């Protein structure tokens, strides 16, 4: 039996570091492991959830497990409401056996996702270079455009966060919420409109919905694990290995060569794309022509070419993104690895990277990456406060989107030389009524912040390496 202390360290996600992810595994094939063997909630297995009351020892363990469950982020606040204990006259937390059953199942699922994140990161690190080499070959090797290929692999924390997000979107907010919506509205969650969905959450928050033991049993079923669920979870991580072609120019001649390389690889079966998305604003030239993508769709069964408003970004974000199935030769045969390939130019690549800091803040991510010095720097300059203040004002938000879109257009205009560049000068933040934010949120300032942050990260990782 694993001790409570080890289990807490294993499942919790500290804000500054993630030591729990470094724990050793007991099996060579982590994908075949039984989730309950790693679960902090394993002690709940001896709880008889059919009885009406838990013992004090059982109650204490469920309380500890529930507090840790909240840190896994596997359940949104409106679902956690149903698992919150009552407080007795002595100030002790009281859970029902039905609540304990759900807490146990949810914790096992969280631990399964954590093990899966570790395993997928291992694959990414092991085969990432191989995936990148495949893309180098596609683009003519080091003598061709292949010399402009870069790559990165997704880390376990990022993988875990993605698994949790997809589980929430695909299971919690559909299957689990349908248990509740059926109870209130007599229909599934999918049949509710946006207003009714928000109303349902308000009902839950106000304590107007009570669940019986059968409802809790249905909730448990959402967390049950099958081999089909396992495969679905793996397919949620479509960018396990990310490769980029960062073009020095991005002019017409260069883009024609890019299409020629891709077309040849697809027709020869050397490249297996599953989805093509040209992200850009309406007036910004994409990197791959829409007609070319449509021709690929005719060649490859099941290929999805996204042409809807989904790729029309309000801020003008520009890239061509292609989801790929990499075929990796191993001693056990061919292994499929899901990757994401992007085409960018040097300037737009840098703009996209520095702009991502804003995106991460709005997504409530830990932008300091667990690095104390970086957190201190961000707090000192007030970047998070500025972003939240700007994007909480609809008018300022729209003005900033206009500024970003103008910046993307200005860069692509220079690259493609479709207009006289002097006619379209570089956008300035003050031109959009946002002069008070230029020290932090202009692209020039974001560039300086990014450079400073990279210096801090470099010193931090070098120091930690020496200490180890």
* SS summary, helix count: 16
Indicate the structural class.
alpha/beta
> What is the radius of gyration computed over CA atoms, rounded to a whole number of angstroms?
25 Å
**How many domains comprise the coordinates?**
3
Number of strands: 8
* Dominant shape: globular
Q: Can you tell me the residue ranges where pLDDT is under 50 for at least 5 consecutive residues?
A: 1-46
Major sheet strand order: 3-4-8-7-5-6
| Separation, N- and C-terminal Cα atoms | 30 Å
Write the layout of secondary structure elements.
Elements: H1 4-11, H2 56-72, H3 77-80, E1 86-87, E2 93-94, H4 97-138, E3 149-153, H5 156-184, H6 194-205, H7 213-223, H8 227-236, E4 241-247, H9 252-267, E5 273-279, H10 290-299, E6 304-306, E7 319-330, E8 333-345, H11 346-362, H12 372-381, H13 383-391, H14 394-416, H15 438-441, H16 443-467
Parallel strand pairs: 4-8, 5-6
Antiparallel strand pairs: 1-2, 3-4, 5-7, 7-8
Helix pairs in contact: 2-4, 4-5, 4-7, 5-7, 11-16
Notes on the structure:
It is a single chain. The chain contains 16 helices and eight strands. With 468 residues, the protein is α/β, with parallel strands linked by helices. It folds into three domains: 4-126 and 156-235, no CATH class; 237-345, Beta Polymerase, domain 2 (2-Layer Sandwich), CATH 3.30.460.10; 350-467, no CATH class. The strands form two sheets. It has a six-stranded mixed β-sheet with strand order 3-4-8-7-5-6. A two-stranded antiparallel ribbon has the order 1-2. Helix 4 (97-138) runs parallel beside helix 7, helix 5 (156-184) runs antiparallel to helix 7 (213-223) and helix 11 packs across helix 16 (443-467). The longest helix has 42 residues, at 97-138. It starts with a helix and ends with a helix.
